[in-house]
Amino acid sequence: MTKPYIPPQEILDKYAEVLVNFAVAGGKGIKKDEVILLEVPECAKPILIPLQKAVLKAGAHYITHFLADKTARHFYELAEDHQLEFFPEKLIKGRVDQMDHSLHIIAEADKKELEGIDPKKIMRRSKAFRPYKDWREEKENKGKYSWVLSLYGTAEMAREAKMSEKKYWDQIIRACYLDEKDPIEKWKQTFKEIDRIKNKLDSLKIQKIHVKSENIDLEIGLGKNRKWLGCDGRNIPSFEVFISPDWRKTNGKISFDQPLYRYDNLISGISLEFKEGIITKFSAKEGENVLKEMIESDEGSNKIGEFSLTDSSFSKINKFMAETLFDENFGGKYGNMHIAVGSSFKDAYPHAEEIPNIPKEKWDEMGFNESIVHSDLVNAEKKAVYAFLEDGKKVLIYKNGKFLI
Predict the structure, then answer these.
(1) DSSP state of 217
(2) What is the C-alpha separation between 319 and 218, in angstroms, rounded?
(3) Cis peptide, bond prior to residue 50, ω within 30 of zero
């Protein structure tokens, strides 16, 4: 049996430093006496101790949730309805109350573990755990919680992306600036420039976006009370500038040249058609049944929750990684545009202090979408993105992978 590739210790230590002392708390890093939940799969064990050490050196506290590999399939094969719907409320609520931050490492020992499992079972389980999502979101909206996602490459993940483990890790190292002498300083410089773009987009007072390419003709109305987001530390790497638009104002057609993995199933050749904000037609060359279940998950899963652009100047990711976290930040030759179907980001509302007290009816009135689903669909072909402004002007803001503002 071939031993798994493990990056040099210096790389793992740098990675942990970036995640704990930069990404946490939106680029501010963890503080003394704060509590962080570390969720680390068994196949990512080499990163666990560096993470724990980084937390301890910062004077903070960690709770470790060590996730055993290859335990999901037999659960879904054997679990009856009442077991799929079981939610350990007291345990999970206590976890949310205790933690100030969470850091989840994405790593998979088997990319196909749930292939062939009825997606309805997986969605039923997701719906049962909806309170966990709601509690975290509520705490985050009060400014009392932050979360971070990052990637640990495995043999299975590399194989799915048609790369060796070493080359897969080379993508991670370059994307996260772990080849830099001071990765955190490099991230601060990148976030500063992305912040400039984000602020410029806000200042334009955009009413509508029109994306045009060989396989896209899509209009997205942004709606009132919106701001652009980005450089918040939630994902490492993160190069995107994004917004949660008014879902009711999306019209047109879009196809995606990048595949999506959902419930350990590959979905490729995806095409969607929107009319007045709702997906009216959809198709996929592979995995269409899984796409159907995803889009029909709940009332909001057939609507848009996010529109995003990535400038190729920032992202060093130039290979398909078979993981959304990296694929939605693809740089390559033409950058990428992606949309997410499903839930919106409420922090796209510009007045942060008001967010905790806004009732559901008000969110609905503003066109913020609500769903248990948030699935990013990526197009990395060359394209032009036009902005229609409040003053009636039409401005080309992005072309062939680069912002023009």
Answers:
(1) E
(2) 26
(3) no
In sequence order, which residues have a C-beta less than 8 Å from that of residue 322 and are 6 or more positions away?
111, 157, 160, 161, 259, 261
**Cβ contact 235:307 at 8 Å:** no
Torsion angle (degrees, nearest 10) of CA 320, 326, 329, 333: -20
Task: Give the whole-angstrom CA distance, residue 253 versus residue 212.
Answer: 10
For the chain, domains (ranges, CATH) are 9-179 (3.40.1830.10), 184-403 (no CATH)
pLDDT at 201 over 70: yes
| Amino acid at the residue 172 | I
Q: What is the largest CA-CA distance in the chain?
A: 65
Give phi and psi for 132, each to the nearest 5: -60, -45
Strand 260-262 relative to strand 101-106: parallel, antiparallel, unpaired? unpaired
One-letter identity of residue 115: E
Per residue in 17-52, pLDDT tens?
A: 999 999 999 999 999 999 999 999 999 999 999 999
| Residue linked to tokens 């992305």 | 194
Residue 183's alpha-carbon distances to 103, 221, 384, in angstroms, are 18, 37, 32
CA 368 to chain centroid, in Å, comes to 17
Asked whether the CA dihedral 96, 100, 101, 102 is positive or negative, the reply is negative
Long-range Cβ contact pairs of 167-172 (< 8 A, separation 24 or more): 167/319, 168/321, 169/5, 169/7, 169/11, 171/316, 171/317, 171/318, 171/319, 171/321, 171/326, 172/326
Pairing outcome for strands 394-399 and 384-389: antiparallel
What span, in angstroms and rounded, lies between the C-alpha atoms of 26 and 314? 18
152, pLDDT greater than 90: yes
- 175: closest CA among 240, 262, 111, 110? 240
Q: Helix (H, G, I), strand (E, B), or coil: what is residue 41?
A: strand
- Residue 1, pLDDT score: 62
Instruction: Calculate mean pLDDT across residues 335-364.
Output: 95
Sheet of 146-151: strands edge to edge?
61-67, 35-41, 101-106, 146-151
Model confidence, pTM: 0.92
62 φ/ψ angles, rounded to the nearest 5 degrees: -120, 150
Which residues have a Cβ under 8 Å from the Cβ of 242 and sit 6 or more positions away?
228, 229, 230, 306, 307, 308, 309, 345
β-pair type (265-267, 384-389): unpaired
The residues, ordered by sequence, that sit 6+ positions from 392 with a Cβ below 8 Å of its Cβ are: none
SS3 329: coil
The set of residues, in sequence order, having a beta carbon less than 8 Å from that of 149 and lying 6+ positions away, is 104, 106, 234, 235, 236, 325
Share of the chain above pLDDT 70, in %: 100
